[in-house]
Amino acid sequence: MPGKPVTDQQVRVYMQDRHRHSQRAAAARAGFSERTGRRIEVDPRLPSQRPPERGRTVPDPFEAVWETLLLPILENDPAVQAVTLLRHLQMTDPDAFPDDRIRRTLERRVRDWRALHGEARDVIFRQTPEPGRMALSDFTDAEELGVTVAGDPFAHRLYHFVLAYSGWEHVGVVLGGDSFTALAENLQNALWALGGVPREHRTDSLSAAYRNLDREAAEDVTRRYDEFCAHYGMTASRNNLGEAHENGAVESHNRHLKTALDQALILRGTRDFADVADWRRFVDQLVARRNRRRDAAVRMEVTALRPLPARRTTDFTEIVTRVTRTGGFLVNSVFCSAPSRLIGQRLWVHVYHDRIEAWLGGDPCRRPSPPAPAR
User: Fold this and answer.
1) Element (H, E) at 289
2) Residue range 232-257: average pLDDT?
3) How far is CA 118 from CA 68, 86, 179, 188, in A?
4) Nearest in space to 295 (alpha carbons), one of 159, 163, 130
5) How confident is the model at residue 122 (pLDDT cuts 50, 70, 90)?
6) Span 368-373, mean pLDDT?
7) Quick check: helix, strand or coil at residue 367?
8) 3-class DSSP state for residue 273?
9) Is 328:336 a contact under the CB 8 Å cutoff?
């Protein structure tokens, strides 16, 4: 049979039958062709006793240039592509290498050299997601969607929560940056919409949440995040800095989500919305449709989730400030106006990612204007 090597046992059967049968019959009984039988009779050694027959069937077109010309270039920079080397050969000796017919040969040669002498590569162990084990969070810039609100460009981000096993997702529109308050508020919204808590919550390095903060403030963000996860009984984890593939379960969902939003906006016919609430409803409706396609896997995963705690936890930053004689107060270096009757009063201000709330003791005050951006 073509491509199937003859075994020692087949040769023994052939040689025994050859005493009683013709060459054709003995070969047929042994399971190979008559032509193979003729070769065996010329060289009666068993296949295991013969040296392997390997060698080139055509001359090596790079024999004269591989060691002297190509190999030094590869050793200097292993990232060089085979087609670049071929173009170099065609420029230096156009008569010897007139066309691209030997390109595949050179690509195989370069591939084999890299396998034997190239740089070590990262080893990635694929993981099989388990129901209820891991959820991932990430922020992604939505500027490429070209959304406008009341005709004005709307600069914002999308918070994206994904369950690794079922792919169930929750998306929040974030007006500020990827701050702790944006993470805490939207993550809680996701968990309560899901109705359960996974065992582990993974993020990226979270450096963007406190990139401009001093060391004490950055440590405070880390402490508050750890306390947040402890409240829900989740193990907090994050991928190594610069290793995006470790957060790949949500990174790939980011691309698919923005593609789906872009296509839905095309069908809508306009990317302008009356207000932010209108855009949020649009996003929520699209995400709900995407989650319905995962219904079977989600039902299986929900049974493996841990129960929610009795209440939500703090998802804002609290600042204590006093209303000055000018009729306002400062929040994160932003001046906010307040009713004149509150002059001299101490306020407890809750800073969210998209709004602030002022409290006088246990009573809410009228929302000040303008709202301070979260940091």
Assistant:
1) helix 276-292
2) 71
3) 18, 19, 42, 47
4) 163
5) low
6) 46
7) coil
8) strand
9) yes
Give whole-number Cα distances, 261 to 157, 175, 265, 287, in Å: 13, 18, 6, 9
Q: Tokens at residue 234, please?
A: 């989740």
Give DSSP secondary structure letters for 306-333. BPP-SS----SEEEEEE--TTSEEEETT
pTM of the predicted model as reported, rounded to 2 decimal places: 0.58
Nearest CA-CA partner of 287 in 188, 190, 353? 190
Name the residue with tokens 């013709």: 22
Q: Which of 250, 251, 164, 224 is nearest to 199 (CA)?
A: 164
* Segment holding 292, helix H or strand E: helix 276-292
Per cent of the chain over pLDDT 90 is 41
Closest CA to 294 of 142, 131, 145, 138: 131
**Secondary structure (DSSP) of 63-104:** TTTIIIIIHHHHHH-TT--HHHHHHHHHHH-TTTS-SSTTHH
Q: 122 φ, ψ to 5°?
A: -65, 135
Q: How far is CA 235 from CA 86, 178, 228, 238, in A?
A: 53, 21, 10, 10
The secondary structure of residue 251, as a DSSP letter, is H
| Residue 170 contacts residue 207 (beta carbons within 8 Å) | no
Displacement of CA 159 from its chain's centroid (Å): 15
Structure tokens belonging to residue 95: 């008569």
Distances (CA, A) of 299 to 123, 195, 196: 34, 11, 12
- Best CA proximity match to 165, nearest among 201, 134, 200: 134
pLDDT digits (tens, 9 = 90+) for 155-178: 999 999 999 899 999 999 998 776
pLDDT band at residue 262 under the 50/70/90 scheme: very high
